[in-house]
Protein 1
Amino acid sequence: MQNSGVILYQSLLPGISNVTLRMRYYGYYCWVSETYARCGATSDFEAWRNWVRRAEALYALVSARAGETGVGGVDWANRRLAAEERIIDFAAAASTDPSQERYLRQSLGVFGGAYYTQMAEMGLFTENRHGIQVATRDLGRRAANLFADAIGPDLAKLLRQKIIAARVSVRDLDRLEAIAPSQVQLKSEERSFYEALLFAREKSPGKSAASRSATLSLILETANAIAERPGSEDVRWHLFDPPQNPLPEHLEAQRLSWEAYQCQDLMQVASAALLAWAVAIINADGQGQTLSGIRDEVVSRLSGHDDDAFAASWRDFRLSRDPATISYQELWNDLRSARGAPADRAISAITLMATLHQRLWTRSDLAEAAARGLSGRGSARSLRTELDWLEAEETDTVVERIADYVIERVVRRHSWVAMQKLRWQRDYTFLFELRDGRLFFLAGYQPVATTPRLDPAIQFLEDIHLLDEDGLTALGTDALAAAR
Amino acid sequence: MRLPDRLGRRLGRPFHSAIATGFAVEFAAVEQILLPQLMASGASNLLLITDARMASLALSDGSILPTALGRDYALHSPPAADGIFHPKIILQIGRDSARAFVSSANLTAAGLAGNAEVSIEIECKDEEGPEREIIRSIWRYLDALVPSQPSPARDALRWAGERAAWLDGPPGLVLHELDDSSAIAFLSGPGDAGIADRFVSFVGDDKVQSLMAISPYWDEDLSALADLSRRLAPKRIIVPIDTASHEFPIDAPFAKKARIIDLNWPSRRFTHAKILLASTARYDHVLFGSANCTTAALGREGATGSNAEACIYRRLRRGAAGEALGLDRWLDGDVIALADLAPPVMSTPIPLKAIEARQPGTFELDNGLLIWRPALAGLAEGDLHLLDNAANLLVSIPVASFQHSGGTRTARSIRRSTEHYASYAWSAVTSARPFLTSRTETRCAHVAGK
């Protein structure tokens, strides 16, 4: 279920990921690539990797000294700074030698592990015929030049020298503070370039860039509406309901996609809550449980519930839900909470599922957005597949429908997914396992939401001065107006 | 090291056949974990042999149903007997080589990759030697499990045998000496002699200094352990126990004679391994495989056990077994007083009788003719449901519409049962999985594709 949501939000915020945390890395890496090319680059990948790792380790030291966050290797850098060395030699830490205390374990650092893919998506990077990642001739080179211009030739020279030497004094770290992620200047071409890049104002932006631009504009809309710096939850919920003042067509289409995503994640969390309940049933007495035993327990619990609505058909139950008045946020918080019994949270999950079903049933625009963004066939599971399944036999009682759902769509699905992970990744992720015909508990489960890249996107907007801690800035207001 | 990782390797020329046996089966694990590895080793002729009741349970308890059974592999279950069908063997056969795994692992995800299990891997070429004799013993054992009359399982064995004629050979000695002065034997039960009798005879007259028994399951009165102890007369009886959860009957009188040690297996996973280790001044005598330390598995003096089991006996130099299997930590571990041991948590018994009563028998679909051999006579009501790979109903056939001929029933009109059937006839022939559904909605099945 989570995968469908992940695929959808990736399409809504291309070029930014949950591990690309600061905007300025995009310019810095372009500069790192261009400078490497000018320093007599070869086709030796090892030399390129060494260069990247030294550049990252130095960036971490500068950022740690400046108190920055969201920088790879900053924990290592803080330890080195705490040692109060006069000269910090980071050659060994930047190597790939596992016997050394490395700034990061990943072979190609955060560049390879996080940023490269997203920068390639944005047209800043590509791979040359030797398999080495290089800044592109147009956008990549411009980003490099603007970064160089922003820090000035003296600092650019110092930066290059320190990367080559892999040794730096604390005094030089302070001199290099201008390269830190939060040092993008308000009135700089570098900042304007990042904004144009994010909002797809460059020449011939692709379709994915337009999607990113629309989402970033909606984040600014949210900041404007709530009059403060938004968090990812603020954005989720602000975009969940159609606005009182209609949005331009392209932004409304994007908002609908975010609403579909949020419905998907709500359904995912509800389904996960039922999995947590099934796991709790399996773990009830240490004797394991059969599938029919789990089903019986579900039927017994739901049949004994105070609300007679569970005795009604699924259809009547969903029709009795009012999608406009229910507190989705309350259910959302309840389902992800560790407090309370899983069996109690399952009641919230069922209520939420029926309400989501009714919401899509009564909102053809939302149903169409879900159909566009979510898989409805094959082995993938999504809001669509689950609602289709519930609807297929919706004259069954809620008790019967949910009992079947728990067995067929939750317990068996978990086994199937875990089996795939065992087959392809050799990971043993079963929450329960079969022993002589009974399922035995292995680990508990807590429903979790997916993380739709909103936090780094908000940070990017702050890095380029469209948002600050008070919300929308003057530049942000201008950007929002342009988007409208 | 996980068992599946060992199965996919090739020894020069690929294997062409593989036979896997087990007590419990999880078809999703078989099809997602086991079969891909067996196929990677080159095998395309695949046979599964499992306990009849556990196979029925796996097909009827709501677990993920098989999608390749009858098409990619055949299933056979020896008729249910007093005991259970419990051997855990995987035999991979090639034209001039073979490899066998004799283990404690069931054909489930937990058995193949989750539990702490014990397994021995034996490889051989078509060259004279003890390994080839052991492989031949295993082949003879497996071959004897399947009746000689035509069936998908017999076809699989015949096909394998025709391409590995070297597996044939007269039965020889049970115990084989190896070049390093160690010895090996394949022990199965029920047979001419009980597994415990064989083990005791191999230990011989040497004075046993310690007897270690690792087993997830025990007799209520520890009779098998008591029987072995009486005959081997060890100075110490060491029983490593998972103190967090165990089934060791602490109230049995014989329990007082055992030195209970905390198993504390590094993986902290369910320990399903079964190991007996009798150490003398010269040798470690080890028995491991499918047999729990129970009378049903091992038998008792002069009597065979009731279960079908398969084990490997190894005689090794003193200390070698403990080193190889990591058993040393328990030899001198701190003893836990019985009074300090948590009470046993006994497993819920598997309702074998109830499952047996629900077995529908075997099915073959041959050119539109559905052949049904019911496990129990007298079933007159109910419907037979043919399902597709996604467990969707293809067609429902009333039990009463079958024609009887001896113990076989056939549905000749299956092609004409509905007009719609013609459009999915091919998929039914290639991949349908018949299920018997009684009018009380109980589903169970036993499948044989052709």
Protein 2
Amino acid sequence: MKRNVWIVGSLAIICAFVFVFATGCAKTPVVKEEVALQEGESVIATAETAPAKVEEKEVVAQPKEEAKKVVEDTSMKEKELWERLLAEASDFKNRDIYFAFDRYDLNAKSRDNLTKLADWLLVNTEFEVTIEGHCDERGTTEYNLALGERRAEAAKAYVVNLGVDIGKVSTISYGEELPVDPGHNEAAWSKNRRDHFLVYPSKK
Amino acid sequence: MLRKSVGLMMSIFILFWSSTVWSKVYIDINAPGFQKYPIAVTDFKNIGTTDDRENLSVWFSYQLSRYLKLTGFFNVINKGAFLEDPEQAGITIEGINFSDWSTIGADFLIKGGFDSDGKALSAEFRIFDVVEGRLIVGKRYEDTMEKRKLMVLKFIDEILLALTGERGVFNTRIAFVAKDRDVSEIYTINFDGTDLIKRTRLESLTMFPQWSPDGRQIFFTSYLNGNPDSYIMNLETKRVREVTSFRGLNMASAWSPDGSKLLLVLSRDGNEEIYVKDVENGGLRRLTNNPAIDVSPTWSPDGSMIAFVSNRSGSPQIFTMDSDGRGTSRLTYEGSYNTSPSWSPRGKRIAYEGATNGRFQIFSIDDDGGNFVQLTFERGGGESPSWSPGGMYVTFVSTIDGKKKICIINSNGLNLRVLGSPGRSFSLDSPSWSPRLNLY
């Protein structure tokens, strides 16, 4: 997995380099003009007369308004996109994976869920995940705290193996302390033997 | 069937032994099938000159009866059945007609007297063997009226010492966790069910309370900083200090009998292992080295060995090892799921919880693996056992009316008693029996 990242990265760097080089050589005059525009005020102060100043101002004014509108549109889109991502992240709370009694191995459905989680995290790298491990109420609190940790770590190992940055995956066990169903039967217990996923933006 | 023959063998062994050492062994607290002893307690006689304004006469017999019942070894005979005329009879052997008592089925008789001017108090207590017509033990206490409860408890201790070889545990408390929704706190309650005290106000998940051997501190785990970290709380100052906060689990497990070391379970090295930490210099040493889950370590009473839970053989079972981590050996072979070991202060037995018939019950086993006995048969099961000082009682968790409650049972499996709770919405867990304290 890491090698792929290296290859893509290197290619990207090479491309960027080529692009800069190519464009740089051809467009030197344009760069000079752009520089002149930005330095408009100071140039006016020295040699050019007022009319030139006005012209420059008008020329400058329009791009600013257009730029402003473009920026506004972009920021609206960015905001919508971000909210959509937050919603997607939050939706992982509804996709617990389940375990058999006293076990922490992942079944096919669990692996499927985890693959989808990994894919999402690989694309949306500004997010990270905390995996909570839980147990049903049977057995001692101590043993269940350890079992919950095993369940969380099993899911973590799976997504990290798929390429997710290990620094973006943390685990915590709650043992039997926080069941979703307080019932005392297998129907309740099977709902409690789970990993729960909290996906959220990384703090900068 | 096995139990009966084991019990019979044990009783015979003890009787044989006792004829060469003790004058008589009354109560073998470990013998299964033990019946409660019928005992009569008479109102105390005013042997002083002042009027009995406080009604001490009835107070003493009432308190003695109450505590005798709580020990779980006695059936206190109703006063209405008494034949003796209290005006005529005395409180010493000369003034007692034992046939009055054997007729109504009493095996033991308690008589006493007091002399008080309202401030100072002198009290005499005597317990007689009705069948043999002789005094077992008598005591006189002289102190103030305020100390009268202590006098009663001291005499109860003398009775138990004479009859069972162990003192009572009225001067002990049980710490436990009470959970409501997603907050759990540590509470303590006296052996007799009085004095429920809330000890932590951390407003998070709090677990595994473990007493220090001097009864002054409690070692525990809490999520108060977002991760299960371990802490020690001083019960007097109420201050809480952090012990370990490694990545992963920091499970508080046990305080060594000499107070110098703590056992914990940490998963910082990638999987759950048992560690020992020096209280004084903070040094940490890993004891287990195994990819399996290793949890719930507990010391033997002399601190030389550790019992713990491991699933290294495929399912959770109890193991023992030396206190330095060597010499690991499996203890439990019956049943597919055995956890939560607690080593009896008498040194020879280990109580634990085992899965049977679809639920968990409390079992006990010799520390070398023999004499495996089921202790609880409750519909609500039995989990998380902890022995009393002296090994006469075991406290454990059972589900009653849908909620987990703290229970006490005699070490022979009889006389179940349910302790109080902070409220109906609470679920209780992780009971831990204190050492003997200065309560009275």
